[in-house]
Design brief:
The protein is α+β, with helices and mostly antiparallel strands. It has 2 helices and 10 strands, in the order ααββββββββββ. The protein is globular and about 40 Å long. Mean pLDDT is about 85; it is low at about 1-25.
Length: about 140
Amino acid sequence: MRKLFAFLTAFWLCLPGATASMAAEGGSLRITEMAVTTKVSRNNPIDAVRRINHRSVPALYCFTRIVNPSGEETPIRHVWYRNGEVVGEQELQVKGQKWRTWSKRPIDRDSIGTWRVEALDSAGKLLKAVEFRIN
């Protein structure tokens, strides 16, 4: 089965334009999990916040699990919005084919509102977004 797969892959790469399209697909970052959480433990989120009181925790984290087929180091950005306005950005490095990373945002009484965190690739393309509310 492996030999057949290797043969078909080699054959496909010989087709005109196949290499460019495969490189474009193979190099694409993909987010398999993204959650706003109250804590990251053992490199995993402990919960997924949809609504939270500003007195509950001192900070929130945006956890992101990423598949990076190329395996090359590349940055992503977490952009934090409150009521539609950017209130923070953080660049995070993706350093392998399967990677987990997170950004942190302190919360307090002034944090009340509707929130969104967007994950963007190095070209600014939206990979995924999550929304939540702080009361």
